[in-house]
Amino acid sequence: MHKQSLHELAHALSQGKFSSRELTQHYLNRIQQHKALNAFISVDEELALSSADTADLLLKTGKANPLTGIPMAHKDIFCTKTLATTCGSKILANFQSPYEATIVTKLREQGAVLLGKTNMDEFAMGSANENSYFGPVKNPWDPERVPGGSSGGSAAAVAADLVPYATGTDTGGSIRQPAAFCGISGIKPTYGLVSRFGMVAFASSLDQAGPMASSAADLALILQAMAGFDAKDSTSVDCPIPDYSASLNQPIKGLRIGLPSCFLHQEVEAEIQQAILEAVKIFQQAGAEIVELDLSLQPLWIPSYYVIACAEASSNLSRYDGIRFGYRSLKGKTLRELITNTRSEGFGDEVKRRILTGTHVLSSGYYDDYYLQALKIRRLIQNELQGVLAKVDFILGPTTPTSAFKLGEKLTDPIQNYLADIFTVAANLAGLPALSIPVGFNKGLPIGMQLIGKHFSEAQLLNCAHYYQQCTDWHQARPAYKG
User: Mean pLDDT throughout 329-345?
Assistant: First the structure.
């Protein structure tokens, strides 16, 4: 059962080939068998099986939705009433939310069966999923390597067939980068397309929720259920939502695809460059025009992103003080000591590093030199990308400059860790949609290709990715991981 696509599972459930309870139990068994991956923070078998029974009753009526009865998982950054919401942090290790995120509600109303919540870098801060209070997640292609971050638990769970799909969040590449490292498909929608209500904030102007699955066709099905205006979210955009699945199988001929020279510089591993160029040939054979691009501001993407992201993180995480909710230190005789000890004990090193950096760039005397300058550069980056996308339909390149690196390899060098997002942060700075799909292997490890599109061009992006996956079978490859 776990080798079938979402569409195949939905069809099998509608035909009564197996029940949602049987399917749910199958995936629960797989999660138990592969606990060594550490992909999950929490699993609720009783709730999952109860939801599956409810789905089975709906399936019998013939009025079920496409996702009804299909198991899934949420990244543990989305608030849920039934399971703790930890954000991979000690400071929220036992936090029980009084409300649930909008996308949790939407998928539940579609009849989705929630199995549990996936492991993640603490407060979504990281590119390797090594910063979780609950321990690092392992890449199912090679357990000695990272799955990418911060949505590494979701990516590893999908790649190892522990769930058919999972949700993730993308602040600077945290859906696309782990999707590339784990050989699956993932999309970061246009900022505002999917509600952020109930998604614990890291950097509010950059964070965006999105789905992770095996293929672009599966992503289209999930995004259909997730997208839409939400009055509870002040950043939500009220716009028509197309039928993403119906938009697949459109012709590629005539598309103009941009290939930036900076995406294929010498620091990108040779095997990854070759895989991207082979993918380009497939689009050319379909009648697409490849246009060479120059993105002159690309060297400024990372510094601009990290100044803004850390500044917003510093502000957003100030609420965790041990007074109102979450972990509280038992040390300290004064209020100041209590708050200081709570934050010192509750946050991990990477979160502390970003809070300190963000507080510094926002402080008097440095605001103009760092934060204000980063905002100005962000606008220039947005203008350059929008100018380029006025001439081409998509921007194509590698998702990451390297394949998955070894656990612990970059823990002592934060800068090298940050550079794993060198090609992905621009889409977040500009609020553009972008996705990653598998395009080959580098010494047995998956390679990801990124496509960046115009605002609200998800249907066209998914169609382009789907065409490529119709011509290749990289997305069907599965790790030989045995646990």
Answer: 95
